[in-house]
Amino acid sequence: SGATLERVVIDGQAYVLKHLDLGRDWTMRASGCLRGAPLVLWERGILARLPGCLNQPIVAAAPERRGCTLLMHDVGRWLVPATDAPIPLAQHRRFLRHMAELHAAFWACGDEFDVVPAMHRYLELSPWMAAAEAATGSPHLVPRLVAKGWPLLAEVAPAAAAVVTPLARDPGPLVEALAATPQTFVHSNFKLDNLGTDDAGRTVLLDWEQPGRGAPLSDLAWYLAINCRRLPQSKEASIAAYREELESCGIDTGPWWEPQLALCLLGAMVLFGWEKALGGYDEELAWWETQSVRAAALLS
Known about the structure:
This protein is about 45% helix and about 15% strand. It has helices spanning about 25-30, 35-45, 90-105, 120, 125-135, 140-155, 160-170, 170-180, 215-225, 235-250, 255-280, 285-295, and strands at about 5-10, 15-20, 55, 60-65, 65-75, 185, 195, 205, 210-215. Strand 7 (about 195) and strand 8 (about 205) form a beta hairpin.
């Protein structure tokens, strides 16, 4: 993203200094939280209120002229290995369980949790972001891939593109529909690069760069979309597992589950349609196309 990392040792303990600089970090610019979302979370005391199942490594945060600096425990030894292999089923299920516990802990939270608004999150990987980054001469790979992928979607999956591409340019109807469903505090980037399991069985959770108030199933949909090649069970089984965990936390999913799930799966394509298109029309894209077309009726 453009953030810089520096390893330091303090009193014999290993730490990482992470510098978020607005001039170098395209994700900061895309979020609209120009001071850095992790700094805002730190100042509001939200990180200290996370459930005990999570190990978030930030121990201090300070503002800088164009962003912020984070002091973090070095948790590298616990992170999911960067391979192409599926993760263990037990770890996958633990991630879903701890995601549900996070959402249940902040169910129906207030505006103080709205660090990065939902509208901003759904524009993070939009054609507008790609155009803005190109205009600044940004050297980062992801914005260039986004610019390449969105036009390609209409060629490889026209039915999906008809629904998704207009929302990628203006996610307002999707955001409005989701706002009428239950809300909680979402991390918004449960990708495996940000996850791990520590020696106590807690889930390590990094990169609080787009957190805010939103639909709980948006975290689940993101997780299914971005980690699709490494999940050890089907999307349907993963969805059912998360729902079971949320119910076990005391949340009644009956009244709202189906419409929010459909909208959030559509939302994942609003974020990742470009990426799915780059892989060509395969079983993965076909599944997401089906979900997108099915959900379109909820916006009419």
